Amino acid sequence: MRQHDFEEELPPRARRRRNKINPVRTGRLTQEERRRLARRRDDAYAEPEIPGGADRHTTWDSAERGPRPRPAWVITELAAVDTELGVLKSGKEADVHLLRRGLPDRSRECLLAAKRYRSSEHRQFQRDSGYLEGRRMRRSRENRAMAQRTSFGRNLIAEQWAVAEFAALSRLWTIGVPVPYPVQRDGTELLLEFVGDPDGTAAPRLAQLRPEPDDLADLWRQTIGALDAMASEGLAHGDLSAYNVLVHDGRIVLIDLPQVVDVLTNPRGPEYLTRDIHNIAAWFTARGLQVNAGDLVSDLRYRAGLA
Fold first, then answer.
1. CATH match of 52-202 with 3.40.50.300
2. Structure pTM?
């Protein structure tokens, strides 16, 4: 007699008892097992509650972190949460958001600038080829994808921009160049020191100011000092202008350094260094300050080892 013939001869009560004892053999689930699976399914889809109405938990534990010694205001506690406060700047390659990171009870917190490179379908790295000279990936497949600007290649380029900017900021901050402290890098998101007031008002760009003659001369001296320090490290900003310099409490801060150039390894490095100097000098000259860009180019080329 076949097994299913025997089962049909059992009375209904016996069949129910048999199914309850051995549900796996019959392929059926008990009510308790169904309830347990439903609870697990609900738990899997439930979003964990974030304290204080924040937008996410801190990403400090999974990110590449900034150089030591870290400023005392940097929040490193893993209990911290991040709250989005708005957009500071929208650009072709990246957007910059204002972020508050702090403990849920608000006992410690700080403001950060979250720079996020856009997804590959929206990114417009129009001028990246010259800056990427001298930067090579280890695998030839990755180099080909970057050269052909495939979707994968554009994502690699974005990663390179983020890595290069974070590395440059870390290096420059360590030697005392006036740049925002780089708190962390998580993929293509950089969290940087917010340059501005405690109420979230960002510092103005140099291009927005109309300084008095004495203030103008002081800002030029600060700019020369920053360029000299970068040149001594063999670096050029690569896209320096009055729009990439913030002024906070009378002090300059250089920003937007994804295209930072090593003037010795990049074939166009000397060109970028010269262009940076002429661009920023032209702004000061237009405001009435007499500067000699040619002499400054010669001095900084020498500092960079390009004599």
1. no
2. 0.76
